Each structure stands twice: as C-alpha cells, then as structure tokens.
Amino acid sequence: MSKRIVVLGSGESGVGAALLAKNKGFDVFVSDYGQIADKYQKELDANNISYESGKHTEALILNADEVIKSPGISPKVPIVQKLKAEGIQISSEIEFASRYTDAKLVAITGTNGKTTTSLLTHHILKQAGLNVGLAGNIGDSFAKSVIEKNYDYYVLEISSFQLEDIHDFHPSVAMLLNITPDHLDRYEYEMDLYAEAKFRIAENMQKEDCFILNKSDDYLMGIHQSLANTKATEVYFTDKDFNGATLNVDAYSFNNLSLKGGHNGMNMSAAVRAALFLGCEVSAIQEGLSTFKNAEHRLEWVADINGVDFINDSKATNVEAVQFALDSFEKPIVWIAGGTDKGNDYSTLFPLLEKLEIKALLCLGKDNTKLEKAFEGKVSIIRSTESVEEVIDWSLEIAHSGDVVLLSPACASFDLFKNYEHRGSCFKEAVLKHKNS
C-alpha cells in the first residue's frame, strides 16, 4: 500500500508538493480551507490528484502518513493541532523536495534582503557557469522544480515559516542576513521564538558546510550562542565590507557594483562569500555583481517626472526594510507608507529623521491612525488616503526637482491590495499615467 501524503494549502508550494508526491507514486490528497484558485484546480485535475476546496475533512486528513503544510498556515489552526495530537509528521515543502534532489543547496533567510540576496547569488553562480536553479519563497516551488529540472545547485529563499517544519533539510551553504521584528503575531510576540525558527536553517549542517552570518547584527550575534546548534563552519560578513563604491571581501575588492545602499552592500557581501566558498572565479563574481538587476518592488526606480524620482519599494513591509530604504537616499524625500500594521515600532526610524529631510508622510491605507500619531510633530506634512492616484497628485504637489518620492510602506498590503506586488504595480501604473499625460 502506497504512503498517503496529505497537502494542506493549495498555493504554489502546496501544489508543487502535491505534484512531486504524485510523481513519486504516493497516494496524494490536497485540502484547502479557502478556495483553490482555478489555475491550481486545473493543474491538480490534469494530474489526477484528489482535492477539496473550502473545507478540511478530518477523516481525509488524519489518515495521512505525512502532511506537507503550506507555510502560510499557522501551526495554531485546529486541524494542525489535531495532526500533532495524532503524532502525524508535518513537513514543509522545502523539506519534502530536498529528499528528491542531489543538488547542493544554498539556503538564504533573514528578515530583510532575502529576495535580493537570493536573486544576486543565483545570478553570480550562473555567471560563473554553474548549473543552478532558483526556488523556495521566490518564483516556482522547489518541489515542482525538482520534478522538471536537473540542477547541480539550488539557491533557495527561505522564510521562517518554511523552516518551522523541517526535519532533515540540509543546505551546503546557509545565510542568515539579519533578524529584526517581523511576523511576531506568529511567534507569540517573542523575538527569540522568531529567531529560533530562523536559526533552524543550519541545524542539519556539517563541518564541511558553510554558515554565513551577519556579525554587525547585534541581536543576531547576541542570541547566536544559544540558538546556533550547528556543526557548520561559520563565516561572517559586516557593515564594514562596503564603502559605498567598493566591496571588500576576504582578499578581494569588487568595483562597478549595480546595487546601491549600505544594506545592499551587506547583501552583496553575503552573496560573494557563498560564491567564493563554492569555488567561483573572482572575475565571474565581479561580472555578476556589475550586471545584476534587482527584482520589481525593491527600491525600483519607476520614472522621473519634472526632476522628481519615483521609487517603488512596495516589498518593504516592515520598519527595518523602510529604514534601509530611507537611508539609501541623500535627497529630500516624500515618503509614502501605510497599510496593515504588523505590530510596528516606528520609533526606530526617529533618529533617521534628524539626518534626512522627510518633506511629507503620505499614508496609503484604510487605517493610518498609528502611523499618523507616531510621526505627528516629527514630519511637517502628514496626509492620509485610500487612493493611489491621490497620493501621486499630492507627491507632485509637494516634491520639487531633485527630490525623491519613495513608496516604502512598512506595512502589509492586504487592506487595499491583493499583495505587495499588486500595490507596487498600482503605484507604478499611477506614476506612469502622470508621466505620459
């Protein structure tokens, strides 16, 4: 009798896990308490995978040999609690997929910079001639890629949610970029519980593996000794590796860099250390650094309107990411923020206000009360709206040539938008509409 795999959740990772389980000959069932998107239903139907939508039928779930849980599902939901009570193993998609590839894994986590560093590391390794894939919390699911591709290496962007349900997941290279408050509602508002999930990335690593850590992150290093349960060789990067134009890593200096800002200097430093550990030629790394283009919604330049630069940083959904963004500009800034607050402490941004010229705070969200109160008396112009078009009109009214209009929300997007990509796309569309009018 074949092993029964139940997949909870039907997003990219859930459907990918279901397809891989089917490919390996398991009895597969997908259950989603929400509605399964049409495109995923069609994919499941095409592969003869049984599923249910809009409910969890316990009799069809609690008979599983193993459950693959999508990362967005809280461990506190009743069906997950019942699975734990029954002693049924719960695994993440990255755990499941890693069993079916011999590729070396480069796993990247951290509160901020994961996506940029993953894209950059993948680009450098590809530039160096490695047969490398990109998956995890970015693009296609890891499980689906394992079915279709035969890579020698994978760069995986990994969230804390994905790390909660690993067992034997074993990267050859792991990076922990930083740890700052985020998703604390998932972790009982305890930073140490959040950090514990992050540090799990290295728990199965061996002495021949490389664990790359941010030595300039005081909280990370302070909790490191109690949480870093790993045999891996540790390598450190710091905020001193980058002087704004040149990256100095080990005995090498890298110039002609495409990424700007001190936070991206840290991302580049981590990526270069991974590439050097994997044996990439210095010339190839240099080429990768100089030719890399960052993804959408991450300090993405949109347009110049009358000498004003419009920047889309919609991916900045926490305070630390906004701090990085604001600190990347020396020009006067019209700052657009707001959305669904995630327990933010805005006071960490106050020191920046003393050295930057924030001309206005334009709040884009349904309830901006907390944001408005935090910056009352600290920013001279504060306005609120639920309209992207109105926020652009106000920006053009306030900003002058040489200024920056920065969308860097510090909040989730779900009050007005489908996700941060939708928010960023609406912002870009409104900016370009003005540009072309």
From TrEMBL:
User: What family is this protein classified in?
Assistant: Belongs to the MurCDEF family.
Quick one: which pathway? Cell wall biogenesis; peptidoglycan biosynthesis
Please give the PROSITE patterns that the UniProt record associates with this protein. Answer: FOLYLPOLYGLU_SYNT_1
One GO biological process term: regulation of cell shape
Provide the Mur ligase C-terminal domain boundaries. 297-411
**Name of protein:** UDP-N-acetylmuramoylalanine--D-glutamate ligase
UniProt keyword list: ATP-binding, Cell cycle, Cell division, Cell shape, Cell wall biogenesis/degradation, Cytoplasm, Ligase, Nucleotide-binding, Peptidoglycan synthesis
Single GO cellular component term: cytoplasm
Cite the PANTHER family for this sequence.
UDP-N-ACETYLMURAMOYLALANINE--D-GLUTAMATE LIGASE
Protein role: Cell wall formation. Catalyzes the addition of glutamate to the nucleotide precursor UDP-N-acetylmuramoyl-L-alanine (UMA).
Provide the Mur ligase central domain boundaries: 108-273
